[in-house]
Amino acid sequence: MTHTWDPDRYLTYADERGRPFVDLVARIAATDPRTVVDLGCGPGNLTALLGERWPAADVLGLDSSPEMIAKARELAGLRFQVADLRDWTPAAPVDVLVSNATLQWVPDHLALLPRLVDAVAPGGWLAFQVPGNFDEPSHTIRDELAAQAPYAEHTVGVAVPSSHDPAVYLDALAGLGCRVDAWETTYLHLLTGPDPVFTWVSGTGARPTLQALPDDLRPGFEAEFKRRLSAAYPEHAYGVVLPFRRVFVVARVAA
Question: Considering its fold, how many domains does the chain have in total?
């Protein structure tokens, strides 16, 4: 089953999801790029920040989800297109190529890096950020529950995200002739509201699993998933703490 995305669900924690993007873009030292591409732009709210950072640039947002692109096109003054990063090739090399929380959905995305570097003009910038929290309860609980009966027969082979440590990306991109800045940060997001961690993951990492379940099994899965998440992420007087490790890479392509 091919999953779909819900832009409104995804935007529930837009500020928290946007913080890594801001930290990533802050490390791109491009001054006056002519072309900027946001590869995997989602609902476009962060693409708009690229337009603010480089107002003279031609900024293009690309995403494989028609639902996300439809939402993004509600924003004025920016261009958005449906495209799959696995086979996307620009008409001409771009000056800045950004990919935020997208590559983790591409199996063996290390093999994609040479194509992405080739898509960037000499002296240009490739910057991406991926989650690095897949050993956290927000993911392991989903995996454990999905592997149990009666869910397993429906969730086998479902898309699940994955990524690498910063050093792996540094080594791969340095081998392609890039000057690389790679690092990681763990954010402590304070979430509020009913079942906030479930709300977070149901808009991203857990969504393919939830969509793979038939209607008669999904409510039971969700109820047990919420119960286990609540135990793993207890509520405090100041909110529910969701630790979230992110991996960042900013690479300057050889001139």
Answer: 1
pTM of the predicted model as reported, rounded to 2 decimal places: 0.92
CATH of the domain at 110: 3.40.50.150
Q: Average pLDDT for residues 19-23, to the nearest whole number?
A: 94
| Average pLDDT rounded to a whole number, residues 1-18 | 65
Burial of 9 (0-12, 13-18, 19+ CB in 10 A): middle
- With left for phi above 0 and alpha for psi between -120 and 50, is residue 146 left, alpha or beta? alpha
Please tell me the predicted confidence (pLDDT) of residue 160.
87
1 part of a folded domain: no
Q: Name the strand (E) or helix (H) holding 60.
A: strand 58-63
pLDDT in tens, 76-121: 788 999 999 999 999 999 999 999 999 999 999 999 999 999 999 9
Whether 46 is in a domain gets the answer: yes
Which residue is associated with the tokens 């476009």?
Answer: 44
Structure tokens at 6: 């819900």
Nearest of 127, 72, 125, 70 to residue 102 by alpha carbon? 127
SS3 content of the chain, % helix, strand, coil (to 5): 40, 25, 35
Question: Which domain covers residue 31, as residue numbers?
Answer: 7-252
